[in-house]
Amino acid sequence: MRLPPIVGAALHHGPGGAAGRVYRWLGAILVGGALGLILRVLLFFLGTLALDVVAALVGAIVSLLPAIDPVYTRAALHSLAEVDVQGVAIAGPVGDALHALAPRVVLEPAWSAGSLVRLVVEPDSAVLGRLVAAGFAHAGVLAVGLWLVGAGLAQRRPRLTLAGLAAQVQVALSVLGAPPSLDDLEAAGMSFALNALLPGLVGRRVALSDLVADVAPTTLEAGLVALALLSAYLLAAGATVLAGLLGRRAAGGALAGWYPVGAAAVRRRTAAACAGLACGLVLASAAIAGFSQPTTVAPSQPEDAAPPAASSWNPERDDWFEDLHGLRVAAPAPPPSRVEVQGNRYRYRYLVNGQPQVIRGMGLNTQYRQVLAPGERAARLDADFAAMQRLGVNTVLGWDPLEFDETLLDLAARHGLGVVPPFDLDPSADYTDPSLRADLTRRVLAWVARYRDHPALRMWGLGNEVLHKIVHPVWVGPQDPARDRNADAFAAWLLDAAEAIHAADPDHPVTYRDAEDAFTSWVADELHRRGGSPRPWFVWGANCYSDYLAEVVDRWREKGLNVPLWVSEFAPGGMAPGSRTEGFRQMWGYVRRHPEWVLGGAVYAWTRNGPEEIDRTLGLTDDGTPLDRHVLRTLALLFHGQP
Fold first, then answer.
1. Distance separating alpha carbons of residues 225 and 176, to the nearest angstrom
2. Distance (Å, rounded) from C-alpha 625 to C-alpha 319?
């Protein structure tokens, strides 16, 4: 086998004697490591390009499979392909020189962050796409390393074997330099995968953090590093075997010598993989044990400590959330609220008690009523609402009608917060049944009569993603006739119920929330059948977790609804926790892009202890403790109108 001249020079030439042997051994290590670095950067970049193609192909296939949710599958695929490469960073004087020559491709050496070569991706890149591209790059380098080891052993060229091992160890070092975290895996949707693939073994609300709750942090980190290396080796092993089989078939076996695949070769590569994995694990374990620091927990504030003054709140301070959460801002009970949406033809104003307002909402997915005594629940809600008020939140919404009772509304009113109480609707119900529709309308009007005079009331939340669970979007193609009829019947009942609510309570709008803008056509068709008269009091809520939100707000006038829009759920889904600050900033920018027809938006969600596994990933607090202070600080600045 012929090697490139520079590789051959490093492996075969140099001084004679012991010094020459050391030179050649070191040359083999350097060549293997450099080869691994270059290949890893190149393959990562190629992997990000391939993800775009794969996402498009899988999306086209999924759209033909009615058993798979097309909306959120499309959103997941969209996030899979959102990996943007900023450039390559090279350390040292070489990096400075190359940056001067090609600044758009080679970044400043400071971006290398301690590595010789690093491919820098945009901070808001999707964590799933980043993990897949990195896994592809690692597996490719390992496959080349295994091939070098196998060829070296077969030809009795130990320095070639050493170069292959060095390439493999370089992968281990790169994994150690940016180890996978549990938060990254949960953000990538691993909890969803467990719940979907193993529903009999894994509960619907079980997250990865539940499964490893008793594992020590250092052990968990070492285990994740080992899992990443093992996964990459399995992919590399499959690639080497496939390449060997193709080599034997090609040209009647003429390429078999180029890539031997017999039993002996398999044994050699297995030994090489074990050696590379062992070296990587030893290095990883040593580094983790040596550099991990114990976590220091600040002592909690005594129960009788005086709360800080409101004027002391400063989001730039490290303890700003404690100040914020300690506030108890009680206000006298206001009179019943009057909320209206004025306007027509995509020019609307949202007014609360006569004052224009932008909805700065927070999804309150608490389960306090199920786990807390009434007094404890009231105290927890009081603390939550005090914190939200100081964050700049002015509206709270939810999904569980049992949580949204008089206690919650009274406490929200004390802190000047508005509430969008939910009325849950069963997507499996037969909305073509007149008796079911009549019974639902009676229950809805009783709900309205119970809460319509409450000062915290802002809008009536009539259902959430019901059409999404009944029927597929129109862009999927032909529908199941029975589901389509049920969707038409639901849209008709929805507008009947909304009009009945408006007649019973003209002082508060009605909102229906659904996934993105994928199901507007059923309601738009029903509105046209009714003459299309303006209904500014009927507000469409869009739930969105990706950059598709920009299209939702930009193209809202094309949907034919002639009703105002608000973003009833938004969060940067699929992003690593460290990137969510920029993700929230970007999505709030989308919310505020068209104030003429977008009334505002609501963050999902306040607490991780909610009813679904996604809450474990996207929740901002945990029993009052902030999970990501940077995100909360950013939301506070955005909601207060600061940059």
1. 7
2. 12
* Other residues' Cβ atoms within 10 Å of the Cβ of residue 517: 23
- Among the listed residues 617, 528, 620, 603, the one whose alpha carbon sits nearest the alpha carbon of residue 187: 617
Domain(s) labelled CATH 3.20.20.80 in the chain stretch across 315-639
Closest to 428 (Cα-Cα) out of 472, 475, 492, 490: 490
Reply yes or no on domain 315-639 having CATH 3.30.70.1290: no
CB 470 within 8 A of CB 525: no
Q: Select the more confidently predicted residue: 120 or 556.
A: 556
Higher pLDDT, 405 or 47: 405
Distance CA 109, CA 89 (A): 5
Q: What does the DSSP 8-state code read for residue 62?
A: H
Give the distance from CA 269 to its chain's centroid: 38
266 falls in which pLDDT band (50, 70, 90)?
A: low
User: pLDDT tens digits, residue range 124-133?
Assistant: 677 777 888 8
Q: Which of 429, 372, 399, 366 is nearest to 606 (CA)?
A: 366
Contacts of 291 (CB under 8 A, 6+ apart): none
Its pTM stands at 0.75
Output the DSSP codes for 446-470.
HHHHHHTT-TTB--EEEEESHHHHH
CA–CA dist 63, 73 (Å, integer): 9
